[in-house]
Amino acid sequence: MSEKCNTCPSQAGCSVDPNECSGSEATQALLGALNDIRNVIVVMSGKGGVGKSSVTALIASALARAGKKVGVLDADITGPSQPKAFGISKEQGLMANEYGIIPLESSNGIKIISINFFLPNEDDPVIWRGPMLAGAVKQFWGETDWRDLDYMVVDMPPGTGDVPLTVLQTLPVSGIVIVSSPQDLAFMVVKKAIKMARKMDIPILGLVENMSYAICSHCNEKLELFGKSQGAKVAQDSGIDYLGGLPWDANLNTLLDQGRIEEYQSADIENIVAEILVKLP
Ligand SMILES: Nc1ncnc2c1ncn2[C@@H]1O[C@H](COP(=O)(O)OP(=O)(O)OP(=O)(O)O)[C@@H](O)[C@H]1O
């Protein structure tokens, strides 16, 4: 062992000739070295557009309100929505240290990492093949300086492709929240997500039915916009728990568009998060 190895954290298991070492092994070993992430909640949907990103942001916000240390990993690389929902952009200044990329923080201190922080313009498309997308997600997990988190909430891309597979294989997932909306098609594909989780032996925390109903702002009538709520029945038929439904709410839409999702509060979302907390420590 050479003297230059004395301060290297990888010296114990390292086989590199000290004369040829550029120090990259040591640098690599430090990435993510201080991370202590106790629970990883993955939010999945079988189909796009059902509100998975919105539910991710709402769960993270409710956990932060409950005093938990929270991170959001935006694994939806080709359709990232978390920066917009939390009103964060790379103009806040993305930095890195020897432990990795330092996530940007929301107003309530939620740490967020998203591909949008790395793109020259936030509307630039990411035109990558599966392995590149999966590689980005691995870096977001392992090369980010998350430090100490009670909960990391992961916004998955829709479906059961390369990135969901990488997340479920690479991250120590504590449980999956499945999001659907009350249309037959959405429920048909939700079953694919449930089957994927089962095949990979990952616990399913339960089903959230988004846009389950709407309240008429004039007469307070409960409107079943997408038909009768089927969430509880679909969950029961699939052998998973029903965490609850969220209404279609114009106010939620406005807050998402204005980057103020943390201001949205409702009994429905608090109940859903309470159910999740019962299942996870
Ligand atoms: N409960 C809700 N009430 C009102 N609008 C909602 C609600 N949930 C989601 N939306 C709106 O629906 C649109 C799609 O939501 P979102 O991006 O969360 O879906 P997604 O399933 O993550 O989509 P994608 O498949 O593109 O990732 C957004 O414009 C969002 O503002």
Automatic annotation (TrEMBL):
Gene3D superfamilies the record matches: P-loop containing nucleotide triphosphate hydrolases
UniProt-recorded Gene Ontology molecular function terms: 4 iron, 4 sulfur cluster binding; ATP binding; ATP hydrolysis activity; ATP-dependent FeS chaperone activity; metal ion binding
Superkingdom as given in the UniProt entry: Bacteria
Example GO BP: iron-sulfur cluster assembly
Keywords, sorted A to Z: ATP-binding, Hydrolase, Iron, Iron-sulfur, Metal-binding, Nucleotide-binding
Binding-site residues, ATP: G46, K47, G48, G49, V50, G51, K52, S53
Protein family according to the UniProt entry: Belongs to the Mrp/NBP35 ATP-binding proteins family.
Subunit structure: Homodimer.
Function, in words: Binds and transfers iron-sulfur (Fe-S) clusters to target apoproteins. Can hydrolyze ATP.
UniProt protein name: Iron-sulfur cluster carrier protein
Naturally occurring in which organism (per UniProt): Syntrophomonas zehnderi OL-4
Lineage: Bacteria, Bacillati, Bacillota, Clostridia, Eubacteriales
